[in-house]
Specification:
The complex is a heterodimer of chains A (about 120) and B (about 120). Chain A contains no helices and eleven strands. Chain A is mainly β and about 120 residues long. With about 120 residues, chain B is an all-beta fold. Classes of the chains: A mainly beta (about 120), B mainly beta (about 120).
Chain lengths: ~120, ~120
């Protein structure tokens, strides 16, 4: 069984630039969630995708956007990067669909984004 | 408001001892709770979960206890090993949001195991 994989593992960008992070969900999982983890903090929910549609969003501005593809892989796009966007971005997948709250998320190892 | 917090930011235990990591939550509507372990440079790894209709669940060397009366969650690790050294997060899900991916994480407890 293939786990959640993310690319790239590390990335350095300049303030104002745009970035795309990628995620392949675990085999058999149809739901993908993205989290931002600042250093020394717990992950914070950005948004979730189910059947290629956004299914819930956290307190993040519209410059954070995403996509889910028919094969359940996903992208996180961040426009107009700010210094505070520097963080570990985690992708997680699960097998449950809309409305179920009892399927644990399985996380990838994240992309470390540094904005200078 | 909604929050998940931890009583202790760091915990140091002797190898072979039992560890107990505590977590408080504030939202009585939360119906699902998960413990994750995060090692340096890695993503959170699922340990064990529990639904709100249960008060105890056991796994391999781990037990999660849920006390809904005082909104408290704990993770017990039996015979702690050096490989258990990591940051442990509790997370809660409020089912009525309709989005089980929206977990609210605490800040984490760093567990250090002394040989």
């Amino acid at each position: 069984e293939t786990g959640v994989t993310q690319s790239p593992t590390h990335l350095i960008k300049t303030r104002g630039q745009q970035v795309t992070l990628r995620c392949s969900s675990q085999s058999g999982h149809n739901t993908v969630s993205w989290y931002q983890q600042a250093l020394g903090q717990g992950p914070q929910f950005i948004f979730q995708y189910y059947r290629e549609e956004e299914n819930g969003r956290g307190n993040f501005p519209p410059r954070f956007s995403g996509l889910q593809f028919p094969n359940y892989s996903s992208e996180l796009n961040v426009n107009a990067l700010e210094l505070d966007d520097s963080a570990l971005y985690l992708c997680a997948s699960s097998a449950s669909g809309r409305g179920r709250a009892d399927s644990p998320l399985h996380f990838g190892n994240g992309t470390r984004l540094t904005v200078t | 408001g909604e929050s998940v917090g931890l009583h202790l930011p760091t915990l140091s235990v002797q190898e072979g001892d039992n560890s107990i990591i505590n977590c408080a939550y504030s939202n009585s509507a939360s119906d699902y709770f998960i413990w994750y372990k995060q090692e340096s440079g890695k993503g959170p790894q699922f340990i064990i979960d529990i639904r709100s209709n249960m008060d105890k669940r056991q796994g391999q060397r781990v037990t999660v206890l849920l006390n809904k009366t005082v909104k408290h969650l704990s993770l017990q690790i039996a015979a702690t090993q050096p490989g258990d050294s990591a940051v442990y997060f509790c997370a809660e899900n409020i089912g009525d949001r309709g989005s089980q991916g929206n977990l609210i994480f605490g800040k984490g407890t760093k567990l250090s195991v002394k040989p």
